[in-house]
Amino acid sequence: MLFNSFEFLVFFPIVFIIYWLLNNDLQKQNILLLVSSYIFYAWWDWRFLSLIIVSSFIDYTAGSKIFHAKTERQSKNWLLISLIANLGLLGFFKYYNFFADSFSTMMTGFGWQPNDLTLNIILPVGISFYTFQTLSYTIDIYRKQFEPTKNMVSFFTYIAFFPQLVAGPIERASNLLPQIEKKRILKKEWFNEGLIQILVGLFRKIVIADTIGAYVDTVYSDVGIYNSTTIVVATFLYAFQIYFDFAGYSDIAIGTAKLMGFKFNQNFNLPYFSISLTEFWRKWHMSLSFWLRDYLYISLGGNRKGIKITYRNLMLTMLLGGLWHGSSWNFVIWGGIHGLILSIEKFIKTYQTSYLWKKFSFLGYPITFGVVLFSWIFFRAQDLNSAMLAIKKICQFNFSAPFIGDINLIITSALVLSLGIGFDFFLFRKKIDLENLAARFSILKVAVLASVIIVLINLFYSTSNNFIYFQF
């Protein structure tokens, strides 16, 4: 079920009304959330519900066993069971064909033609997100940073909670589980904030991302027939398509949760207004960035074992972070580019002269955006050959026919993009978080803003396009 679909427009109000009618019975509320979340997920394919239920049961059991283990060995064994079970399911469904195909290609290079090893596997929606979410629970218990819940319904609801089930934010148990296990109150200010954030999310998705995505999809479907300028423009637009698409999803998820009485962590904080790639990753997909930092980078040793090991850890973290996004060498290279630049930034920060750094620090904004823009080519291209062809075409500097394609679509994309960037710049200059925007507005301003957004959504809405991050 999509947030930007008619089905969700019917589904959510029904759940919302019944949910608050059950306000005097916390257990019934949580059961409703669990059942509703399973219905929400089953809308795609009910068969994959079994994976969520199996994963939830394994980690509910493992969390309890880890906490009550009498020895470190027993505790570690149960953590390994959790890791192997969850990463095993993720690895099979998401990466089996990637590694099988890579192995076949490598063997072909040595002169051996193996049989086709790939399988007809469907990638379950959201498996990357809820796998990381459930793993954080057992790892935190193992690290003695969190105590397991005794309520199975609460834990299963934590894993399957529908606002963030299929594309995040990746919520830690320490933040979400305590909220599930205590009475919620419908707060007027949260209702206003949540409603505005949902509408802004739909605006970002439907009006901006889907509009500019039409041009991006046309160009990147066959980069070989387009010139340098057209591919550069499409790549520039894609940078904002993926931002407004995923930030829009996060906005809807956070806003929906607020209407249900839950407070999610922020997932985007105007990442393109970043002076360094390090800052960019503190603002982009923050729940994943902090997950990779806390559970992978720090587990590898972080920056505690010398500068060379720090560079290694950064590269490994970003390479694996790239692979998390997709089973393709494109994503590995994308992660490698970010890992390399992050390492260079750490080197500069270590050996910089404060005078030069302060004098030329303003260059960090265009350089950071340029690096991110270049790396998006690998992220968006259909495969590695298409990515390399796009780069080759860009380097031909063919400006003879600046724009190939529908000029009207380019103009429309420019107009809606200017609205999105202008709104973000307003938030940046005023230092206002979108989560708290409604709280700073009067009722009249909230009503006007909501009306304008609703009108724009209706003008641009044509089809229920998937969110980009559903494929990950």
Automatic annotation (TrEMBL):
Subcellular location(s) of the protein: Cell membrane
Keyword Cell division assigned: no
Stored InterPro entries: Ac/AlaTfrase_AlgI/DltB, AlgI, MB_O-acyltransferase, MBOAT_fam
GO terms for biological process, alphabetical: alginic acid biosynthetic process
Segments passing through the bilayer: 6-22, 31-58, 78-96, 117-139, 151-170, 190-212, 224-244, 331-348, 360-379, 407-427, 439-461
GO MF: acyltransferase activity
Record keyword Endoplasmic reticulum present: no
Membrane topology, from the record: Multi-pass membrane protein
GO CC terms of this entry: plasma membrane
This protein's UniProt keywords: Acyltransferase, Cell membrane, Membrane, Transferase, Transmembrane, Transmembrane helix
Pfam families: MBOAT
The family this protein is said to belong to: Belongs to the membrane-bound acyltransferase family.
The name this protein goes by in its record: MBOAT family protein
